[in-house]
Design a protein that fits this description.
Blueprint: H1 14-21, H2 24-30, H3 38-60, H4 75-100, H5 121-143, H6 145-150, H7 154-194, H8 210-239, H9 253-298, E1 300-301, E2 310-311, H10 314-329, H11 337-356
Antiparallel strand pairs: 1-2
Length: 361
Amino acid sequence: MSNGGVSRYRDRLLTEQFAEHLRFDALAERLPGPNVYPPYLLVATGILIEYGILDPYSHFVAGEGSFITNPSQLAIPAMAVIAVVGARYIHDSYAEAIEALGIKERDDGGEPNAFEGLLSLRLRLGVYLLVLIGVYVFEITVIGFPTLLVTGNLGRFVYWRAITFPLIVLPPLIEFGLSYFAVHIAVPRRLLRADIGLFFYDPRNMGGFGPIGELLKRTYYLYTAVLLLYFVQTHAPVILERYIDSPYPAPGPFIQVLLSIGWLVGLLTIAYSMYRVHSIMKADKEERISELESELKDIIDAPYDIHTASITDREAFETIERRLERVRATKTYPTTFAMWSQIFISVLLPQALNLVVQIPG
């Protein structure tokens, strides 16, 4: 993966800009060994302070709840790690997939400018600020400070809301979420508008759309991983109540409905994106077959009568037959059977856990 901004098709991430403003890029350059991606250093530092210093201090000195007695709390930093890695992967893979389509070398109507950047900075920053303000307003007006302070001391309370949440956890989660939806909703539409044709000489028989299929599949895996971590974070304290200590109540019906909605959203997005890409590939394949069929008719006398039809140009006929073979061999889905099997398991797992696990009442 690139460190950002090399390809014309890759956005510069919020986490990359935050890391630069906080001078983590300069710190990464001074560290010995191979270069460290600055957002990784930013997230690792924030998590280390929160869970390596403040959390153990609260547990051993103040006797408060900790990941030591409730390991499910580590699901939150794990989500942040997956999100920062996932956002980088999505934007790098998007740029690589668009480059692999060879738009600049095409003469079939592909427009490189239509694919520059996955998401605008204004949208990402706007959603980030909206969610940040919304969470703070909700905590102040609905939950209240006394309830919030029950789960931690004042130092952790301030550090979480001033550093960890706004700089370490929220930016990668927002960027990952928006990028996921952009890949599964916006990218297929861009492909349709740009009229990208299939590469029928693709040795994988995917029309050159294999990287697009990989992008759709792996982003869905990452989405599923975040959803499963949220399940662990909300359900593990109650499921394992005999072994861990948690100040949080059992997740109510709202949490289970929220998980079901998250599962349904993931299912709909992967189904939508795969169907749209399939439609594009199928339409182009059918169009090329129709064109070759028309060419065959032009070099066959009485083409509709198998008994009297005769080929007027044998060399042209064989050339068209070879082309037809390549076109017919091209799949209309950017996936293999193994990929479909993996997607199927990823689709079933989150909702299966949500339905099977019963919260003790």
